[in-house]
């Protein structure tokens, strides 16, 4: 997985640089110093805008690793990280998640029909979109049998989790599955770039009535660390009132891959799939 455990900051001529490493902190610091020199040179030559695109598309995600999961052989199977706005994310090396957004209709966006005629018409449309997405997953499972999906409802759509075998992100079947189920194009790109599958486990802060995280990790000083700690305490309290996923009937008849059981159980517990709390 392209998620670096070591990060550092450095400056050159007043220009900051952010470095990372898969080896140790010293390597990350040297990388940061090199990036700071490159950034200062780019800024001085007026080439900053053209020089940043490739860098940001291929670098590891700037997310702290909260917990690591490993199999009996010691291979890392999953990483729990915190994303840029503060939610906890499960990154898995070979357990495939497919998130499918179900955008609201124009009527649902405006609330016009809800206001004039009640919610029934909109609820039927939402159900139709959800049923269509699940039908695509059922069709795919039949065509690719043996196959098994765990299905979850999210605030904005559905999450499918393949549990019958392990997958590599670069396998052709993964891209084919994303296409068949209608996975978000940005999610597909992120999976390829970061060499893993991702699933948000905790609510988006604003959906839980709180603001997004406003400091970036690694923190520049103790003040930023303190701001993060205070934010995290309030965010976790806000999350207590919400779930991230709701379990729906599974699709397919294949047996679960035994090596995935720990990750599945962790995902289901943190997202509170059986809590009946409102989704966020």
Fold and architecture overview:
There is one protein chain. By secondary structure, the chain is an alpha+beta fold. It folds into 2 domains: 1-60, no CATH class; 63-271, no CATH class. It is built from 9 helices and 10 strands. It has helices at residues 25-45, 48-58, 106-110, 112-117, 120-143, 172-181, 185-194, 222-239, 261-271; strands at 6-12, 15-21, 65-70, 76-82, 88-92, 97-101, 148-153, 157-162, 197-200, 246-252. Strands 3-4-5-9 form a 4-stranded antiparallel beta sheet, with helices on both faces. A 4-stranded antiparallel beta sheet has the order 6-8-7-10, with helices on one face. A two-stranded antiparallel ribbon has the order 1-2. Strand 4 and strand 5 (88-92) form a beta hairpin. The longest helix has 24 residues, at 120-143. The chain is globular, with a radius of gyration of 21 Å. The two termini are 27 Å apart. The model is unreliable at 50-56, 108-117 and 119-124 (pLDDT under 50).
SS strand fraction = 15-25%
The number of distinct structural domains comes to 2
Distance between termini? 27 Å
Mean of all residue-level pLDDT scores: 89
Mass-distribution shape: globular
What's the gyration radius in Å?
Answer: 21 Å
Instruction: Return the string of H and E elements.
Output: EEHHEEEEHHHEEHHEHEH
Helix tally equals 9
Count of individual beta strands: 10
Order of strands in the sheet with most strands = 3-4-5-9
